[in-house]
Amino acid sequence: MPQVSSETPVVHIVDDDESQRLGLDSLLRSVGLTARTYGTTHEFLKADRLDGPGCIVLDVRLPGISGLDFQEELASLGIRLPVVLMTGHGDIPMSVRAMKAGAVDFLSKPFREQDMIDAVTLALNRDRLRRARETQSVAVLDRHATLSPREREVMALVTAGKLNKQIAAELGLSEVTVKIHRGAAMRKMGARSLADLVRMADALKDQSR
Amino acid sequence: MPQVSSETPVVHIVDDDESQRLGLDSLLRSVGLTARTYGTTHEFLKADRLDGPGCIVLDVRLPGISGLDFQEELASLGIRLPVVLMTGHGDIPMSVRAMKAGAVDFLSKPFREQDMIDAVTLALNRDRLRRARETQSVAVLDRHATLSPREREVMALVTAGKLNKQIAAELGLSEVTVKIHRGAAMRKMGARSLADLVRMADALKDQSR
DNA sequence: GTTGCACCCATACTTAGGTGTGATGCGATA
DNA sequence: TATCGCATCACACCTAAGTATGGGTGCAAC
User: Fold this and answer.
1) pTM for this structure?
2) Residues B30-66: pLDDT tens digits?
3) May I ask the CATH class of domain A146-208?
4) Is A157 near chain B, with CB under 8 Å?
5) A205 interfacial to chain B (CB closer than 8 Å)
6) What is the CATH number of domain A10-131?
């Protein structure tokens, strides 16, 4: 039996039809993937490890809420797992809406098993990529949070390409003080060069967008 | 009559049905947009100003080639105008394929006029954004092309955060020489600070990807 | 063969960046 | 109240960066 560490990606299957759930579950297990099944979105949201690696396979027709609406709700909840949608009674506007909202794929039932496996594989890859980027920039964000307000201010101006002298004038400080804050920013951010710091500053901007 | 300068975005309509073409043309004109119509992809590809701002409204069923295939062909031809697809006999897999390939929207005929207008507006906005980014990084690319091989080499190491001393050692040069190349790179690239240069170097990397 | 360009370097000098010592004041918290 | 983090600055010192002067080579185009 494969070990399920917190690093093992989980495929979350949300479908109100139990036989569909079981079928999908065994399909994904047959290719070595780990799956969890849920009959409702509520049940899914109560589950843990939603912040771990994985993806979601979501039926469009669910009790109480449309899978499409739920897809948008996930975003506002900060759950950024890639979503694969499936439906038995879909139409083109539905699929277009789903894809616009960032779905990895939109499969009509009955689908070919290989199509589902491909979609899930793609979704997991996309998640892995996002996570890799995320861990990098979260580390930067954490370090940036340890800066004092002044240090942040100086860092912003330094990475904007200003000279210590100009920064001092702009903030009404002496040049020495700027150098001190600048040095502290470099140290706290773990930047080994100005180029490093510039890239971190840009990563912070991307983060906030 | 509105003036059509090279800055006016053009909506390229590709549809083999003439009445459809005319209808779309007048719809778009009614909201102040400039449109061109084509009965075949061939006719479209012979047109000029395909590198100007605009977007493409493409019927899926075309003589000789599927609109979906043509969408992919456009990419390989380097034509990066956003594409809005429409069809009278579409299905979900078609729409999903189109959206995966980057289509702005996929409309089933008959569509609501407002939906087409919205799609085209979105497409034009997307094009405007891409163009703005593009002109920036193309300018950087041009300037980078004026650097001598050594200057490029030094720029790469500088923007990697290395000290002149380290660069000199790595390239087997004296530190003065490195400074000269470095200064030349800054001048030719139009960088007013090291931070500037670092961002340009990163833009170059993005470009190549 | 001269002209132009890329490339290289030494010396000398100026400005910018970085650090350490030592000191002051402020506000929050233990 | 004492201590800690933050912010501030002066003085001194060192390294790094940038520029100018002046000179050298090799290569390719005209």
Assistant:
1) 0.85
2) 999 999 999 999 999 998 888 899 999 999 999 889 9
3) mainly alpha
4) no
5) no
6) 3.40.50.2300
